[in-house]
Amino acid sequence: MKPVIHHTHAGQPALVAAGLTRAFGGLVAVDHVDITVSAASVHAVIGTNGAGKSTLINLLTGEFPPTSGSIVFEGRDVTAWSQHRRSRAGMGRSYQRNTIFPEFDVLENCRLAAQSRWQRAWNWITPAARCRLARERAATVIERVGLGAVAQRRAAELSHGQKRQLEIAMCLATAPRVLLLDEPLAGMGAEETERMLAVLDDLRRDHAILLVEHDMDAVFRIADRITVMVNGRVIASGTPDAIRRDPAVREAYLGHEAAEAA
Ligand SMILES: Nc1ncnc2c1ncn2[C@@H]1O[C@H](COP(=O)(O)OP(=O)(O)OP(=O)(O)O)[C@@H](O)[C@H]1O
């Protein structure tokens, strides 16, 4: 079988959601959302509490199905695909919840993540070679997220920031081309935030990154585009500069009077 080679270039749409809607009973958590995440870019989704950001990520990863709308990944309609199938196709997700094995070291955690992704593809080679490939892949992603110095350390002994870096590394071990990141900066101090932003800036070179994040300073520094959600709907989408100036965004965040005074 010939390997599938993906050519995705900067600016090309990697992930496109159209009219994406999800209702929970009478509550429409995500309401006709259109969003395009381009290759080699960081696209942040921001919004007030309960705006529907996590639900949007869950729909994109296939955690649950949309009520209506479609999701296209690199030209293929994946709306009906399972989470697992999307992940194998190259849609990577880093979870807010912990997926790390605390008793295993950093390298082992990443090796297991790599192995889970490549098990089937590597079936034709010997277990020893499979193990070596997974170790190599793990070592590469560990360096990439800046955890090289702690590769042999038990995950339980890592700082909070390092654990979040490890989660990104485990996601990278599965060789995704789109990264869906749910609050990767949550609970981080200033130094940890800087480190993670440097990692994201580097990953942007060859990944389409969708980032849900509450840290506004970080979002406005790192994002190429920002989509703003309020009550399940997109109220604005554009460059950080355009979003900063957008009257509807200012009103949603600052309140009507403050927006008029600004
Ligand atoms: N499984 C569910 N069942 C019922 N309602 C849900 C479910 N998941 C989310 N909701 C509701 O959908 C709305 C959007 O929630 P969501 O978690 O997506 O918002 P969010 O923008 O991620 O919020 P936050 O910034 O506080 O994390 C909320 O009113 C929430 O209570």
Automatic annotation (TrEMBL):
Keywords, sorted A to Z: ATP-binding, Cell membrane, Membrane, Nucleotide-binding, Transport
SMART domains: AAA
Matches recorded under InterPro entries: AAA+_ATPase, ABC_AA/LPS_Transport, ABC_transporter-like_ATP-bd, BCA_ABC_TP_C, P-loop_NTPase
Gene3D superfamilies tied to this protein: P-loop containing nucleotide triphosphate hydrolases
One GO CC annotation: plasma membrane
Molecular function as annotated in GO: ATP binding; ATP hydrolysis activity
Location of the ABC transporter domain: 15-256
Domain of life per record: Bacteria
A Pfam cross-reference name: BCA_ABC_TP_C
PANTHER family reported for this sequence: CONSERVED COMPONENT OF ABC TRANSPORTER FOR NATURAL AMINO ACIDS, CONSERVED COMPONENT OF ABC TRANSPORTER FOR NATURAL AMINO ACIDS-RELATED
Protein's name according to its UniProt entry: ABC transporter ATP-binding protein
Source organism of the structure: Derxia gummosa DSM 723
